[in-house]
Please model this.
Amino acid sequence: MTTPTTTPGYDHDDPALAPSPITPVDLDLLKATVLFGPDDEAALRTAAEVLDGRIEQVLDVWYGFVGSHPHLLAYFSTPDGEPIGDYLDRVRARFALWIVDTCTRPYDERWLAYQNEMALRHTAEKKNKTDGVDSVPHIPLRYLVAFIYPITATIRPFLAAGGHDDEQVEAMFQAWFKSVTMQVTLWSQPYAGTAW
Amino acid sequence: MTTPTTTPGYDHDDPALAPSPITPVDLDLLKATVLFGPDDEAALRTAAEVLDGRIEQVLDVWYGFVGSHPHLLAYFSTPDGEPIGDYLDRVRARFALWIVDTCTRPYDERWLAYQNEMALRHTAEKKNKTDGVDSVPHIPLRYLVAFIYPITATIRPFLAAGGHDDEQVEAMFQAWFKSVTMQVTLWSQPYAGTAW
Ligand code: HEM
Ligand code: HEM
Model:
């Protein structure tokens, strides 16, 4: 598995990270809204074990999906529509760590701060800066929200591949679905401002 | 089942409805992003049959969920926090029709126009107007996005109650999940403006 500290642009543990505008109280209300609790945390820890060793395969599926849809690949491309290989690769390495973080990190203020950073990296404020690339300026909110579906649905077979019984697989799947929904909710904040 | 034309404020077929700012081309790209296709349409038609006669029970679950969370019930309440019974009832009747529409309507320009209207009814621009109530001015985007989880997860047992086999229930569930994700995506448009 990739070591966090050697992944370019992965700043989860950077002490200089700005705090999130979202408070732990806001987060607790969001958790209640998606019914996220201790059982989900436990299920995600199990998911981390199941996904360990399968992360490159998960990323192959997701990158295959993006790569086969020009309207999505555009966001990893130059304004002229030329895919930027180095950009795709560097983001992929951070994406791998995101899967692990989703399953293993406590959802605390540091996590909130990096959630905010990841959100901004999809917007005009910070997209392209981390990797110093000349790509299109931002990712529209619509595709972030819509991605809840593929990012959730495609994980199921991988969660089922660890030999757990149906009930355990279902628990991991539900926890993943809740977490992805919650994270996209957090990432919608810079897009909506005060209406968030 | 409730007859559309007698439900106060249900304006799906109102010829005066303003067109959506979202084009059919935008919608096609969204459908591709959530992998929504003809099989999903067919599965939703079956879901309509299964849910027919169970809609009040679905609404009992959803309203029970909202009613048991003060931070959610607040949006059906006066600014002082007093729930408005008449508001809850009138929206509930329109919600019942939304379930049917989600499963049976073609997702065409008329549907897009009413999607836009429903979106606006969650925002400061139109909330409270349809029912002439004195409630809080808008629903924050965060809860719209977060609701993808409960509105999706809670439907599954109802879809399973019609005696269909596992594969058919799964197809109905996936189609529902895609549709809800797509509709919330559409509803996020007035919150994000040009960044949508
Ligand atoms: C469920 C929704 C999504 C999730 C969970 C997700 C996840 C991620 C993660 C983990 C990163 C790396 C963050 C970091 O720098 O550490 C990232 C960056 C990126 N994502 Fe997403 N993403 C989502 C939606 C999208 C969509 C719809 C697109 C458009 C095709 C997209 C394109 C990108 C791009 C271009 C970057 C690099 C941004 C930069 O310049 O720093 N993402 N995403
Ligand atoms: C998946 C997300 C959601 C869906 C599918 C949904 C569905 C609906 C539907 C179908 C209506 C009636 C539309 C019409 O007038 O015909 C409605 C209105 C309403 N919803 Fe939502 N809703 C969602 C999120 C929320 C959330 C998070 C809240 C806050 C608790 C909320 C509170 C309301 C209120 C107060 C109204 C009445 C608005 C008005 O004054 O016209 N909804 N919703």
